[in-house]
Amino acid sequence: xxxxxxxxxxxxxxxxxxxxxxxxxxxxxxxxxxxxxxxxxxxxxxxxxxxxxxxxxxxxxxxxxxxxxxxxxxxxxxxxxxxxxxxxxxxxxxxxxxxxxxxxxxxxxxxxxxxxxxxxxxxxxxxxxxxxxxxxxxxxxxxxxxxxxxxxxxxxxxxxxxxxxxxxxxxxxxxxxxxxxxxxxxxxxxxxxxxxxxxxxxxxxxxxxxxxxxxxxxxxxxxxxxxxxxxxxxxxxxx
Length: 239
Hints:
single chain, alpha/beta, five-stranded parallel β-sheet, four-stranded antiparallel β-sheet, 40% helix, globular
């Protein structure tokens, strides 16, 4: 497996160590030591994955994550020395796909990178289920695996990588209840550090984009004590 990665951290020693490790594993890497450098890199280059630290000298990884999610859908992996769960929730709400707490084992970093790239590649190519068509219609939603985005009444929703993955996954089981654990296992993988709570955070973000009223969801509904169900009736009246 190969891919183009951007590594963002103000610890130059760690950056060089990660770069050496990842290049040895067949990945192409560029590095940035500040928010400004990272924004310059993402403006001029295409990356398959961004690995970023929460703490940066001229800002933080949360700011970078928020800005990237305005125009990019590649997976984001946060690195941090902090163990506060609040930081993890903030990162996930902003669009991060996984979290890795420092210090970490080199093989764990490689495993996370491969897992994120593999799942992103599967959903990009539409291969999780060979019987699933490249486009899915669910009510007023059109889910396009080629563009890796969804459209509501012909308007693009600009989904992040993980938002698209969860929506596409649920669309394959339209009108069926799917457990939270099943979504986490098949979209994140049990090796993800974020845990099943990441599913709830992603569903929350999705509802803000696909629902008429996110506080009263009609399309992506909660099955209490079980999981979620994607339905074809979101309450939209089409004349």
